[in-house]
Fold this protein.
Amino acid sequence: MRIAAVALILAVFPVVLFSRWRLRSTPLERDEGEYAYAGQLMLEGIPPYSLACNMKLPGTYTAYAAIMAVFGQSIAGIRMGLLIVNAATTLLIFLLGRRLFSGEAGLAAAAVYATLSFGAQVMGQAAHATQFVVLPVTAGVLLLLRAVDSQRYVALFCSGVLFGVGYLMKQHGIFFAFFGAAWLVWKHPGGWMATIRRLAVLGVACALPFAITCLLLWRAGVFPSFWFWTFQYARAYAGENSLFDGFDNLKDELPSLLTGVWSLWALALAGLIAVWRKRPHRESACYLTALLLFSTLAVCPGLYFRDHYFVLMLPVVALSAGALATAISGYGLAICSAALVLAIVLQAGYLFRWTPFEVSRQIYDLNPFPEIIPISAYIRDHSRPSDRVIVLGSEPELYFYSHRHSGTPYIYTFALTEDQPFAKKMTGDMIHDIEYGGSKYVVLIDSLDLWAYRNDNKPTIYSWWGGWGPDHYDLVGIADIISNTRTEYRWGPAAASYKPQSDYIVAIYKRK
């Protein structure tokens, strides 16, 4: 039974690897588009927060730039980089599980992580920032264990640097640095004075990547813009939801989070309970519980609870699931393999049958991620590299695909319609950029998703465009997203006479 269970668990890795490779050309979604465009600009020598601005810290932009420098500026190249990042994280999960429990526990944990982190439930096929957070913080967690056991400052310093890198990937990563500090206080190896010194070392190490980043951005002349977007606006954005809003968001998200993989989450719960019942594993159980607490907190900022935020919990979920292989003598490994097989079977359509286009539609519904690809090709073929483009509708992947710079730093229009104190100024700035920037194309993403931000009877950039745009731009292209399987395209004069059949439209306008 043990050999069969190990064989089934080992079989998970090629399945996930095959599926990631098969779906590598799934169209980028908008967050990926932002990272890809910012990374593309960095490869051109243009710093972040100049031509493209948003509230994320620049770590993921840098990761994308590095990936595209190696694998090329393409969808497949980005996904190849994600595959390597995910594989490295999976290996670290194995090493953590082996150190905390046993080799079998590490193997099971790695298989659970590989499965969950690729799941459609967390948009695992997409190279979100959270996928880049978990790699350095998992390495930091592993080094923290070694630093506490050996009482070596070098290992502790390296652990802190890795936590700091995780924070640079996305602000949520700061909670793993708090975990490191909390564990040092809990263990206080060598007494309290030694613990204070270690906390100081950890704090300096955590701050070092951010301090270097601030220095580089200051030298590039974009520090004021960086500070506004990543602290002032980010603070306003994080404060938009009330506790009731957060509860509703979480309630809406949990059912889809468990769909198809409930067996693995149940496995994690059982594993955590089982290790607490085993006295030899009590310290490891305490470690997992603390990590679970701070991983959960990492999902909570802003109370949005978006699908991919839960990637931050997957390392500790996987470790807890793998722990069952050790905690239940004789049958733990078999239970882990059965749960993994069930999760694979329940996700068979996603893993083995759906095409990249179908994956995009199944996960993102009628969002125009597939349509942006041919629209970008049209713009690239009908413009010069020096021409500017503006997207009204928060699809920055168009800039990346078309290799054209944005005519405004506002690559998202969601920020302009949010209930936050900077929205009015942002709207005025973007209107100015459109009126006086001379962008050759304006692409309007017109969907029910965006209309939800316009129905408060307040003037918006969309209502302004309706009055100003037709006098200065001609309609030269349209994509009418009629259903999950049908999109009608019209180009040139045919676009102007076309009558849309749906509420999901992408319209391409050319300056007169």
User: Anything to note?
Assistant: The chain has 24 helices and six strands.
